[in-house]
Write a structure and sequence with these properties.
The protein is mainly alpha-helical. The protein has a single domain, classed as CDP-alcohol phosphotransferase transmembrane (TM) domain (Four Helix Bundle (Hemerythrin (Met), subunit A)), CATH 1.20.120.1760. It is about 70% helix and about 0% strand. It contains 14 helices and four strands. Strands 1-2 form a two-stranded parallel sheet. Strands 3-4 form a two-stranded antiparallel ribbon. Strand 3 and strand 4 form a beta hairpin. Helix 10 packs antiparallel against helix 12. The mean pLDDT is about 95.
Length: about 375
């Protein structure tokens, strides 16, 4: 029995009719990574469940986050005058990041190879991808840190939101067009960051202090690339695909309000978290950047997963995520000084958000496993008793 039936009967009926449709035009992915993944998947045993591959890859990113949290909890280790992260940690981070990327690429191939493709597999994959955004961004942040040659915690907060909105754009596209257009930036960033981790292990974080050209630092270059990629590639391509579907009269939601409804909860989440950042009495983002990023990233993943469920089941997007209601109260309590220990409030709310999201995920996986009469992490079939 599911912990709670988050997926409605209408959505279950929609999942029964679901067919996967995606477009990947990235040359790196098409000509390099897919051939590599096709070779890797042949080494996997045929009894290995695709969802177990997906979950293992996700846990490598969580492991990176935890490992860097141990050595660099406040993102100061890469700053001059501080004890730096050991070189072996960067090597491990590079290996784990590339393993996570590889497993994310072979899980679908394993599903087709074992004839075990289900809507649950895609939902599980993309749901974990939405949560992985925060673990990926926070781990990369430790390379530059928040020192004089690093990135300010507030700047990183807005960069995180650029990454989050870039992620949800793809699923907004699919919600409206029925086709998932895989972003070019994902493959390029994963390969690049893995290489940067290895490079840092060899040359040390001091290398990133030096300017590339004149007074342009590496942190400025990376910040520029993330923002430029989002606003000159990801966003324009999403809008182009949306308008193309509109012109061909193939949009699933021709009403503009319905078409842009998926952005309501993420925008409200951005507004609430930004109000907390700007009006925090104790400057909470400076005090606890890692925990604050984790809270925002997890809340975002919860909102995004609900969109993915609606998108895959071809049902109307939920206008407002209920998680934002208690968050509104938490933010008001923080900025008004009702809860004097703001750090404790952040920790308690972050724990609540994580538990809520895990409960949601486990419940949905159990419910869909029961509906499709499958095991989530095994290719064996449940008994009919």
């Amino acid at each position: 029995m599911a912990l709670y039936e988050y997926v409605t009967q209408e959505q279950l009926a929609g999942f029964d009719k679901y067919k996967y449709s995606a477009v990947d035009t990235n040359p790196l992915s098409v000509y390099v990574m897919h051939p590599f993944w096709n070779s890797v998947v042949k080494f996997l045993p045929t009894w290995l469940a695709p969802n177990l591959i997906t979950f293992t890859g996700f846990m490598f990113l969580v492991l990176n986050f935890v490992m860097l949290a141990f050595y660099d909890f406040n993102f100061t280790a890469s700053s001059a005058g501080h004890e730096h992260v050991p070189s072996w940690v960067w090597v491990a981070a590079g290996i784990f990041n590339f393993l996570a990327y590889t497993l994310d690429g072979v899980d679908g191939k394993q599903a087709r190879r074992t004839n075990s493709s289900t809507p649950l597999g895609e939902l599980f994959d993309h749901g974990l991808d939405s949560w992985a955004c925060i673990f990926f961004v926070a781990t990369v942040y430790s390379i530059f840190g928040r020192g004089e040659s690093g990135v300010n915690v507030v700047t990183l907060y807005y960069i995180l939101w650029v990454v989050l909105f870039s992620f949800i754009l793809s699923h907004w596209e699919k919600y409206n067009t029925g086709v998932l257009f895989l972003p070019w930036g994902y493959d390029i960033s994963q390969v690049t960051i893995s290489l940067v981790f290895f490079f840092t292990a060899v040359v040390g974080v001091e290398t990133w202090y030096r300017p590339i050209l004149w007074n342009l630092l590496y942190r400025d270059f990376f910040t520029f690339m993330i923002i430029a990629c989002s606003f000159t590639v990801t966003l324009p391509m999403s809008l182009y695909n949306f308008l193309k579907a509109h012109r061909s009269n193939t949009l699933k939601h021709s009403n503009l309000y319905e078409a842009f409804l998926p952005f309501l909860s993420p925008v409200l989440l951005f507004v609430l978290s930004t109000i907390w950042v700007v009006f925090s009495p104790s400057n909470i983002l400076e005090l606890q950047p890692r925990v604050f990023y984790l809270m925002v990233g997890t809340a975002f993943a919860n909102v995004t997963c609900k969109l993915i469920v609606c998108q895959m089941s071809n049902t109307r997007c939920q206008a407002l995520s209920w998680l934002l209601l208690p968050m509104t109260a938490v933010v008001l309590a923080a900025v008004k000084g009702v809860f004097t220990n703001e750090t404790l409030l952040l920790y308690l709310w972050t724990a609540a958000v994580i538990l809520t999201h895990v409960h949601y995920g486990v419940s949905v996986v159990q419910q869909l496993s029961k509906h499709f009469n499958i095991f989530a992490f095994s290719l064996k079939k449940p008994s009919s008793d």
